[in-house]
Write a structure and sequence with these properties.
The protein is α/β, with parallel strands linked by helices and 323 residues long. It has helices at 13-24, 44-49, 67-76, 96-106, 141-151, 165-171, 182-191, 213-219, 224-237, 242-265, 270-282, 287-296; strands spanning 3-9, 31-37, 56-60, 82-85, 91-92, 112-120, 126-130, 137-139, 162-164, 196-207, 239-240, 301-305, 310-315. Helix content is 42%, strand content 22%.
Length: 323
């Protein structure tokens, strides 16, 4: 078995059938499919059982154990050389597994490979696509950090990533201490072990809808500590120039303002006000946020990293398109 596709799920009846069908429709067929159900109370398990494919295995937890535990449970059941975590409301394009397996096969030192993203709405219609690089690359740890400091979701959500199982065993479990960013924490730990492949083609559909775990946690104001922890950990693990460090924190201040706006929109007042104040403390006057928006988000300037983990500002978009 080459690939184990792992779907950690909870009350996902609305989108799960389409998600599973996108796996079964892959051009690459050497996989098994594990659905780890976190004690759903809807028709999630019935939907899984409605498929007759022998490659599908359902494991149901007796009680809801939280997101990280469910991801770890799914991984513990995986048999494949490679592991693909797939969120139960997301989709894989038909060639996703084939192209990601080929990328990892080409580079035995690579620990994982990610792709561009296709954002889709609740009905599966494409909203827009995102790709941070123009050509296929294998990136160092410092390059992953540089991309993440500017783009945030540089590596992408779990559905975009294929992981070498031996690397996952080395770095250990997803952290249960993080409410939102268990994936970002994992990507950084994996990237410290070896190269990370990047395929610019959008090969997975990331669904945006109000019921996603990410949206719920952001609306409740629970994402800020994760963002602070991630950013500080990344900056501490490389040697950023003063300008790179300042712009990174400016981007964080901007993300806090977006969270606050979402909170106000959904009727919250107390925590969004606290978030705005926190953003001002990070970037007084929002000077570095303005620099980020004007020069870095537009691609006039970017960040790059060298073999000594020095992260510096460069002209043009973040990261050179080196092969």
């Amino acid at each position: 078995m080459t690939v184990s596709v792992c779907i950690p799920t909870f009350n996902s009846a609305q989108y799960l059938r389409e998600c599973i069908e996108s796996v079964l429709g892959q051009t690459y067929q050497d996989f098994d499919l594990i659905v780890s159900d976190n004690a759903s109370t809807d028709a999630t398990c019935d939907i899984v059982k409605s498929f007759s494919d022998a490659r599908i295995r359902l494991h149901r937890l007796g009680q809801n154990m939280g997101m990280a535990f469910n991801f770890n449970n799914a991984a513990s059941l995986a048999r494949g050389q490679y592991i693909k975590f797939l969120c139960s409301d997301d989709l894989l394009d038909p060639a996703c597994l084939a192209k990601q397996v080929a990328a990892l096969d080409r580079n035995p030192q690579a620990v994982m490979v990610t792709t561009g993203l296709r954002f889709v709405d609740a009905s599966g219609r494409t909203i827009h696509t995102v790709s941070w690089l123009a050509s296929q690359r294998f990136l160092s740890y410092a390059e992953v950090v540089a991309g993440s400091l500017i783009h945030g979701v540089f590596v992408g959500p779990p559905s975009a990533v294929l992981i070498r199982r031996s690397a996952l065993v080395k770095v250990g479990l997803f952290s249960e201490a993080l409410p939102l960013s268990i994936d970002v924490d994992m990507w950084l730990r994996l990237a410290a072990l070896g190269p990370v492949g990047y395929l610019p083609e959008p090969l997975c559909g990331f669904r945006l809808h109000p019921q996603t775990m990410t949206m719920q946690l952001r609306k409740a104001g629970l994402a800020r500590n994760d963002v602070l922890r991630e950013t500080q950990a990344m900056l501490s693990s490389v040697a950023p120039s003063p300008l790179a460090r300042s712009v990174a924190w400016g981007r964080v201040a901007g993300s806090f303002l977006k969270q606050a706006l979402a909170g106000f929109t959904h009727g919250y007042v107390k925590w969004p006000l606290a978030t705005v104040w926190q953003a001002l403390r990070i970037d007084p006057g929002f000077f570095w946020l303005a620099i980020f928006l004007a020069l870095f988000q537009t691609g006039l300037l970017g960040l790059d990293a060298d073999e000594d983990r020095r992260v510096r500002v460069r002209r043009g978009k973040t990261l050179h398109n080196r092969k």
